[in-house]
Amino acid sequence: MANKLISQMGLPKSIGNILAARNILTAKDALSLTEFELMELLDVGLSEVTSAVALISEIACPPYQTALSLMQERVQNEYLAGHLPTRLKGLDEALLGGVPFGAVTELVGPAGIGKTQFCLKLSLLAALPANYGGLNGRVIYIDTESKFSSRRMIEIGATSFPEIFHLDGMAQEMAGRILVLRPASLPEFTENLEQIKLSLLQHQVKLLIIDSMTALVSGESDKDLKASKQHPLGWHISYVKSLAEFSRIPIVVTNQVRSQNSNESFHYPFQVWNNDESMKDLPRMESHLVAALGIHWAHAVTIRLVLEAHSGISLVSDDGIEIPGPEISAIHCQGYDDIFDFNR
């Protein structure tokens, strides 16, 4: 709006012609000077300058919005954006339909827990034709650890969607919709992100996956991340969030875990240690692992899904009480009391 031409603002010709003659062509040119500087430059009276500046300001400034209108706009955008169903019933119910569009969803867990496999499954779901419940779009998969396996992806597709993948040429078509990038360094990753924004529109991309964020700063300890005034992924955090809001597609990132110091305070509900003496005889879950990348990164994600493997656990509440049950691998949704079966 600052570069809007004054000639298009409908100013009186008397003042408009003088501004043009003095090479004051845009709103920015005019509003960068004080009224007295404009009086001297244009050789006109204060009332004429004040009137012209008021009109230029009114046209150049964006209209105000109330808090209510902003809230209504956000609710409407979220309603129109929708979700990418994971096909895990309990998880989709907890997420109110699946992985939300226009937001950053993080998968946290130790190596081998199934983060990459979950991302491969989501990639297939986004690439599936709409009549099979998919998004019928392309996927950009940023593979920073070289863990992406096209063979494993086809195996997952053939097992999960046999009615589709057994059709002639369908496996090749689905694989062709998933675009894989493998940056070898943080500068390469930065370049990839800068190029992605245009691709999201040009190639009908319906899902962006970054697997994983941790590998990009693997040389930095978590202590260094806390001590540093500027997070090494600070720009990337902001850019990824802006991509989600701009494109209104789901963005999924993975994160590793690190060991927790014994005297470190807990930051998340799933790491609670319950000191209630009345419950001291009940078994409790004491989490010794926390998400990597620090609290700065944690504040950037919209939804955090923590993947944990437990033996003999079927349910765990937010106060850390274990309830015995069959051996499962589970997804624990932060902020909810249920553990959802990952193999369901």
TrEMBL record:
<dbReference type="GO" id="GO:0033063">
    <property type="term" value="C:Rad51B-Rad51C-Rad51D-XRCC2 complex"/>
</dbReference>
<keyword id="KW-0539">Nucleus</keyword>
<dbReference type="GO" id="GO:0000724">
    <property type="term" value="P:double-strand break repair via homologous recombination"/>
</dbReference>
<dbReference type="GO" id="GO:0003677">
    <property type="term" value="F:DNA binding"/>
</dbReference>
<keyword id="KW-0234">DNA repair</keyword>
<dbReference type="InterPro" id="IPR003593">
    <property type="entry name" value="AAA+_ATPase"/>
</dbReference>
<keyword id="KW-0547">Nucleotide-binding</keyword>
<dbReference type="InterPro" id="IPR027417">
    <property type="entry name" value="P-loop_NTPase"/>
</dbReference>
<comment type="similarity">
    <text>Belongs to the RecA family. RAD51 subfamily.</text>
</comment>
<dbReference type="InterPro" id="IPR016467">
    <property type="entry name" value="DNA_recomb/repair_RecA-like"/>
</dbReference>
<keyword id="KW-0238">DNA-binding</keyword>
<dbReference type="Pfam" id="PF26169">
    <property type="entry name" value="HHH_XRCC3_RpoA"/>
</dbReference>
<keyword id="KW-0233">DNA recombination</keyword>
<keyword id="KW-0227">DNA damage</keyword>
<feature type="domain" description="RecA family profile 1">
    <location>
        <begin position="80"/>
        <end position="257"/>
    </location>
</feature>
<protein>
    <submittedName>
        <fullName>DNA repair protein RAD51 homolog 2 isoform X2</fullName>
    </submittedName>
</protein>
<dbReference type="GO" id="GO:0140664">
    <property type="term" value="F:ATP-dependent DNA damage sensor activity"/>
</dbReference>
<dbReference type="GO" id="GO:0005524">
    <property type="term" value="F:ATP binding"/>
</dbReference>
<dbReference type="InterPro" id="IPR030548">
    <property type="entry name" value="RAD51B"/>
</dbReference>
<keyword id="KW-0067">ATP-binding</keyword>
<dbReference type="Pfam" id="PF08423">
    <property type="entry name" value="Rad51"/>
</dbReference>
<dbReference type="InterPro" id="IPR013632">
    <property type="entry name" value="Rad51_C"/>
</dbReference>
<dbReference type="InterPro" id="IPR020588">
    <property type="entry name" value="RecA_ATP-bd"/>
</dbReference>
<dbReference type="InterPro" id="IPR058766">
    <property type="entry name" value="HHH_XRCC3_RAD51B"/>
</dbReference>
